[in-house]
Fold Aminotransferase class V-fold PLP-dependent enzyme.
Amino acid sequence: MAYFDAASAAPLHPVGRQALLAALDEGWADPARLYREGRRARLLLDAAREAAAEAVECRPDELVFTPSGTRAVHAGIEGALAGRRRVGSHLIVSAVEHSSVLHTAEAHEAGSGSVTEVAVDRTGAVDPAAYAKALRPDTALACLQSANHEVGTVQPVAEVAEACRAAGVPLLVDAAQSLGWGPVAGGWSLLTASAHKWGGPPGVGLLVVRKGVRFAPQGPSDERESGRAAGFENIPAVVAAAASLRAVRAEAAAEAARLRDLTERIRTRVPASVPDVEVVGDPQRRLPGIVTFSCLFVDGETVLHELDRAGFSVSSGSSCTSSTLTPSHVLRAMGVLSEGNVRVSLPPGTEAREVERFLTVLPRVVAEVREKLGAPVAAGAAGAAEHTVGGSGVLVVDALGRRCPIPVIELAKVIGDVPVGGTVRVLADDEAARLDIPAWCEMRGQEYLGEEPADHGSAYLVRRLS
Amino acid sequence: MAYFDAASAAPLHPVGRQALLAALDEGWADPARLYREGRRARLLLDAAREAAAEAVECRPDELVFTPSGTRAVHAGIEGALAGRRRVGSHLIVSAVEHSSVLHTAEAHEAGSGSVTEVAVDRTGAVDPAAYAKALRPDTALACLQSANHEVGTVQPVAEVAEACRAAGVPLLVDAAQSLGWGPVAGGWSLLTASAHKWGGPPGVGLLVVRKGVRFAPQGPSDERESGRAAGFENIPAVVAAAASLRAVRAEAAAEAARLRDLTERIRTRVPASVPDVEVVGDPQRRLPGIVTFSCLFVDGETVLHELDRAGFSVSSGSSCTSSTLTPSHVLRAMGVLSEGNVRVSLPPGTEAREVERFLTVLPRVVAEVREKLGAPVAAGAAGAAEHTVGGSGVLVVDALGRRCPIPVIELAKVIGDVPVGGTVRVLADDEAARLDIPAWCEMRGQEYLGEEPADHGSAYLVRRLS
């Protein structure tokens, strides 16, 4: 059994568990009360706040605990936007933010606000110059994650913060994926994080608002957490979160080096042992524990299922694993292949032999899924594609009603049937095709000519170059 | 050591603690994931939802878990109001709701909404006819607590629900104080509750929305908890909450009878052993564990402090114990004395000998505080009040700058100095005087003539009747 999905949730750190048990006994009372149980709870809450603030490198009175990282993001963005309402209602986010940021941006846009989404390059990183360019006189807030949750790419936060500072615009950093590894450098104004990502318990987020940043909490509030997070404080969880953060930080340097080596093995050896794989994300500027790759000609759901049967828990940004049947917005923004996508995110303590076993099992799993789907084993292999050559010499592949990865499999099967310079027209109505057909062209050195509306779904045009 | 403030927070039930520990091991993963840890978490979440729904007597798909009772109230009211936006934006609440309800009503009113606050009688209960009368064609929602958190009075929920149903208006019931004792009867439409009030952990609230009730969640949302409570599910806490609820329900009937007897002892014996005490709340229709009384001529803060030193943790609705220095809105709405207010709320398992010790200690504590404050020991006792008799024969007491309970003490000292039919004019700028001088008149059979603006603060006029 190997749990390789730490970027979704990490099990509670043993130190956090001990702290939780102690705080269940000592910290259950209302910290606003004057009697001894209340005073004891207040002491625990204050100590947890100080410990968390030290890890964030902020003042304790700048930090409040929220019921989740998601709530921290919602409250942080809404409060910062409202605090600068007089300046304007323009919000900047990157295209690869966590869904909690993007959902808040959508809600802002559905109101009277405007949103600019800053694009990323093929590694998933934003360009600080693009943020600088997006800043306007009416920009109320900019948001940028410290590192991406799906591909591990570390963002140039300090540079973007500098551009924002020059324009007098606060920057909110979603540090959910990185806070366990270290504080976020640079002159950010607001910061959010989520305890269950660093080995704390669920039920705890952090919202940090630097002194001097205009902030107006939205919605009904109460006197708890400086009026920024309503509801009875969850002190046992908060204490466990702070203790876990301190514990993972103590181990962070050594563990980062170890995990970086393990993910480097995956980055290097998967493309060598599995044909037709694209490893995505920045090879250098990345989180220690995350590595993500996509495999042509397989569907993510089946790969996940087979890996689960083999004892590996991983996640995927493939469309077939999402409830909306659309590929991950991160992979889409990067313009990389989404089919057969696998994210491996190693929790601290992952043993090398587990990674080695993964590297042994994966090629077999992918090969078996490909075989079942009838994927081409080599370019130009005899295919069973339903295709016709039109009057214009264009070869038409009808993949309507077929889900990812079938449209790409069909395309790959027939590309050898047209002469170099000839065109294949793929008819598909699966959302993933829009991302995966161009990505396949990029991987295979073929030319993607674009998409046209068709009677049903879309037609994707590909010119054979080699 | 006796913790008598269960209405604020109850320690975690041992069954809940066991469940929490088990679920920390089994339920930390993301229940939306397809691998085994995710499936295991999903099973725990589903089972907890079924158990909670059974206790509420609703369908599991009508119930979502929120990060707190406060969040359940905010989300429930906002969602119900938005769902019936076309009908209108009128909201009805009782004057004695929990602050989370009243804060949401204030936010609604600060927007474009209108709010009617239904008054209560001297026991803290609403009149169903008053709710029926408050209903308007543009009423979007009515809210009523199942029982009051400060005085324990049980509200006529079923009757109010019937009036609302007849008008086609949904009723939201805040069941925070009563759900541990049993399901809420009557045709309510929405229900909220808070786990740490029934012996569950902090970090869990319930929001129930009956099928067919129009509901539009507000603010940014995600796919969790039917889109009604954003953020990663806190499964260990949710599992512990459901297990605790089941456990306290199993003990509820026996424990209710036992605690009712203990609070009855306090209701009966405190007025007999402490002079000048008013026990507030309905003597019959009340929660088993709550009893509240107010003591003339003492300040709540000192009484709480002295009781804490004697080993009793209780709370108070007196102005001096609130951060805003205003008396509890509940006591104010009831029109009862707020000075020297003490709320005793017994957790399940409270032993009779602890209550007996409280009954022994309380008279001494109150007597000592009264002695320190120079309170009159009997009507007409020689006083040190600074007072003057004006030209009109009105006796003027200057209590400006003096905090509760001094204005009432000064009034009591001089009332014997004016003839029957004569008037005392008390000058005071402490907020509590507005409530406590009329309440004192009511208790002592004197006539309260009303309040007039004065150069500083207000003048309160009292006519001696006996």
Confidence is low (pLDDT under 50) at residues 379-385 of chain B. The two ends of chain B are 44 Å apart (CA to CA).
